[in-house]
Every structure is written in structure tokens, then in C-alpha cells.
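Box 3.1 A note on notation
Throughout this textbook, protein chains are presented in two layers. The first layer is the amino acid sequence; the second is a C-alpha cell string describing backbone geometry. Keep the layers aligned when reading.
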Amino acid sequence: MKYSAISLALVLLLSLAASGFGHPPAKVSVEFDIADHLLRIVVAHNVADASKHYVDEIKVELNGRKIIEQKFKSQIDKGIQEASYRVIDARVGDKISVISGCSISGKKKAEIIVKAEEKEQNAESLDE
């Protein structure tokens, strides 16, 4: 019993230490231009080395259905990852969700409801 408790504590300690080197993206900013059907995403994720610790994926959902999934092998710079997509199927009232993931640990999500008449519509991160 004592050996099992020590083993469990060691495993938990190692997993906490490993996750301590990574962190989820800090913020996801989303802009949608309905006239051009252009979705612009900026993920804030400050890292020391953007080739080893970076935003490794962005997923876009339209009304809960995954429509885009892009994988990355590095981050555009040490502070952000950017992506732009044409979402031609988005209509007024639709929900666009953006989920960004870190190569080491964690995810961050932002959502926006498509509105008429506004040139750009902005959303910021939700805690996931």
C-alpha cells in the first residue's frame, strides 16, 4: 500500500512538472467581416522559443460542426499565432467557435454570433 501511494505521488508530481513548462494560449481574438465572409484569428501565446512551444492547432466550428482544422509546426512569432479563413457558409445568427491549442498544454476558445450590418464583429476568449 505504501509503495502504491509513493508511486502515485511520484506520477502526479512528474505530470505537474511537465505541464508547468507549457501553458494554454492567453487570449483568442476573433473578427468576422460578413460582407467578405472573412474570419481573422489572433491567438496571444507568449513563449520563449516559438519553434518548440507554440500554438499547434486552430479549429473553427460553425454552429457546432467542425469546418476547419489547421495544424502548425511553429508560431508566427514569440507572442502570437495568426490565421485568416473565408467562411462562406456563415449566415446571420450563426455561431462561430474558434479553439486554439498549445503544443505542450492547454486550449483556449472564443465564440462569436454572426450579425448583420456590422462590418467587423469581435469576440474574445472564453475559459474552456
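Strands lie at 27-33, 38-44, 55-62, 65-71, 80-86, 95-102, 107-113, 121-123, 125-126. The domain at 22-126 is CATH 2.60.40.150 (Immunoglobulin-like).
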